[in-house]
Amino acid sequence: MNLFHDEYAAERSRMVDEQIKARGILNPAVLSVMREVPRHLFVPPESIPEAYQDHPLSLEEPHATISQPYIVAYMTDALQLTGTECVLEVGTGSGYQAAVLSALCREVFTVERYPSLCRLAEDRLRSLGYNNVTVICGDGRLGLEQYAPFDGILVTAMADQIPEPLKRQLALGGRLVMPVGNPGVQDLIRLKRTGQDQFQRETLISVVFVPLMPLPNPTSNPAESE
Ligand code: SAH
Fold first, then answer.
1. Which pLDDT score is estimated for 21?
2. Which residue of the set 13, 32, 47, 67 is catalytic?
3. Residue 142 domain flag
4. Ligand 1 pocket test: which of 34, 60, 92 has the largest number of ligand atoms within 8 Å of its C-beta?
5. pLDDT value at position 2?
6. What CATH number corresponds to the domain at position 143?
7. Is the CB of 100 under 6 A from ligand 1?
């Protein structure tokens, strides 16, 4: 894929230098992928002019936002990927975080509760050639038992605790990164599985994320269904 020379390449490079590198993320693989993935193709059309700005943006459904670029870089770095991992993302949203992960590990499974966002993300990822990403519609709080264990789990929505199935689906030595706290502010937690029942927990930074929620009720708004 050669996306270095699209019309937003300079803006994207500035985003990396000013918002990410300047704040202390120096992992060369993470910086390089953030310079490549065309973030403007993952946001709603009306938000394209803001795609490289230093803040999150609303997506096409309520309670769904593409995170601030710095936070995407920070969480990706926190997973400590080497390129060989199988990674689960909970909260596909736009598919942008999954695209970033895709270049840094072997395989990505990403779960989203809104069928509409799943379709949009799937189309974007396919058309851009991110072929090691599988988008699945469902309740990410349950993880994906059939593809477990995962060397990395990245949860891009918050809860007051880490869902137990996700902990169980972490490989030995695997890392889970997730915002944990109350709806106003959360700690970004990194949990490492060090044994069958042993986990090491670190608190990284303060963040604000949308909540992990149950599946939308398909019968509640028939006008929106296809
Ligand atoms: N990682 C995304 C942004 C995530 S926003 C990106 O790069 O764009 C959080 C996402 O989590 C939203 O799209 C929301 O619909 C989804 N979500 C919330 N609860 C969920 C659940 N239980 N299972 C799967 N996805 C969920």
1. 98
2. 67
3. yes
4. 92
5. 46
6. 3.40.50.150
7. no
Other C-beta atoms lying within 10 Å of the C-beta of residue 172? 12
- 209 and 197 in contact (C-beta within 8 Å)? no
In a domain, 15, yes or no: no
How many domains would you assign to the chain?
1
Confirm whether 47 is a catalytic residue. no
Nearest residue (by CA) to ligand 1, atom 11, is 91
- Helix pair 28-36, 69-78: axis angle to 10 deg: 140
Range of the domain at 86: 54-224
pLDDT at 218: 74
Is any ligand 1 atom within 6 A of the Cβ of residue 110? no
Does residue 147 sit within a domain? yes
In tens, the pLDDT along 102-157 reads 999 999 999 999 999 999 999 999 999 999 999 999 999 999 999 999 999 999 99
Cα–Cα separations (whole angstroms), residue 95 to 17, 18, 223: 23, 23, 25
